[in-house]
Design brief:
The protein is an alpha/beta fold. The chain has 2 domains: 5-156, 3-Layer(aba) Sandwich (Rossmann fold), CATH 3.40.50; 169-310, Riboflavin kinase-like (Elongation Factor Tu (Ef-tu), domain 3, Beta Barrel), CATH 2.40.30.30. It is built from 10 helices and 12 strands. Helix 5 crosses helix 6. The mean pLDDT is 93.
Length: 312
């Protein structure tokens, strides 16, 4: 795996962080469609003898323009960094999106950011790329501006999977919200996973005989509320199978959306540690039970179903 460098501005860059062949876009999910764009940037990087880069933004432009929008992220920046490193990316430009970038015209973005600051030698983007104030820049615009400022441009055509499903972040979100994590994984090329710090809960799971690691959902897209078979990656790299409830816990009057993961055959303390839990199989919708005894009995059924789904 490449040791990736994360750059958080376009201003004042060191020479080693300039002159890349870079893929340009939001790359939320680093799904198979995104990987085609990165592959195009890699082809140019190899031809030019340049480092391979990816240019994205934080916060996501949608969050900037629509601060009240429902949570929608497919990946955190840390997850993006790991996925890009696995693809051999050398430099991850996480440009701070705010008033300055939002107000920059497409020609100014190409000149100031891509040409003068990053000194990009080549830029690859998807067929539906937009950039600049009012999203006035397109793939055609980028190609024209690249000729003007001396960097090459590759625009990658739309890619669908074998079923005709568009490989897109919106497709991932729709699949997750419909309770189809397998379909989301087919678009992503890996299971969708939620990363977060394990927080102390009300310890009701422990009382029921199924202790859980509780993780806030943050700005992640909300998958269908319910019970999932899961695979959790610990800080030391171990992966532990489990079963999780994602939702509000209506049986106990819960109102906060969170992920509660019961790890199979695991008794270590994870409080305060960052874990990443992949949703593998949707087992059933979240529901309210008439008693804690009924809930406990159902959790046992769910755990058995999850073990079977995971081949445990």
């Amino acid at each position: 795996m490449t040791t990736i460098r994360r750059v958080h501005d376009w201003r004042g860059l060191e020479p080693r962080d300039q002159g890349a062949s870079a893929a340009f876009g939001n790359f939320d999910g680093v799904h198979l469609g995104h990987q085609r764009v990165i592959a195009a940037a890699r082809t140019a990087a190899e031809r030019l003898g340049a480092p391979l880069g990816v240019i994205s933004f934080e916060p996501h432009p949608r969050r900037w323009f629509q601060p009240a929008a429902a949570p929608f992220r497919v990946m955190s920046v840390n997850q993006q960094s790991r996925a890009l490193a696995e693809l051999g990316v050398d430099i991850f430009y996480v440009l701070p999106f705010g008033a300055e970038l939002a107000g920059m015209s497409a020609p100014d973005f190409a000149r100031i950011v891509l040409h003068e600051s990053l000194q990009a030698r080549h830029v690859a983007a998807g067929f539906d790329v937009t950039f600049g104030k009012g999203r006035t820049g397109s793939g055609e615009t980028l190609t024209t501006l690249g000729r003007a400022y001396g960097f090459g441009v590759t625009i990658v055509d739309r890619v669908d999977d074998a079923r005709g499903i568009k490989l897109s972040s919106s497709g991932v979100r729709e699949a997750l919200q419909a309770g189809r994590p397998d379909e989301a994984a087919a678009i992503l090329g890996r299971p969708f996973a939620i990363e977060g710090v394990v927080a102390a809960g009300d310890k009701r799971g422990r009382m029921l005989g199924f202790p859980t690691a509780n993780i806030d959902l943050g700005d992640y897209v909300r998958p269908a509320f319910g019970v999932y078979a899961t695979l959790t990656r610990l800080p030391d790299g171990r992966e532990v199978k489990g079963v999780a409830n994602l939702g509000q816990r209506p049986t106990v009057g819960g109102t906060v959306e969170r992920l509660e993961v019961h790890l199979f055959d695991f008794e270590e303390d994870l409080y305060g540690q960052t874990v990443e839990t992949a949703l593998i199989t949707f087992l059933r919708p979240e529901q309210r039970f008439e008693s804690l005894d009924a809930l406990k009995a159902q959790i046992a059924v769910d755990a058995t179903a999850a073990r079977q789904a995971l081949g445990a």
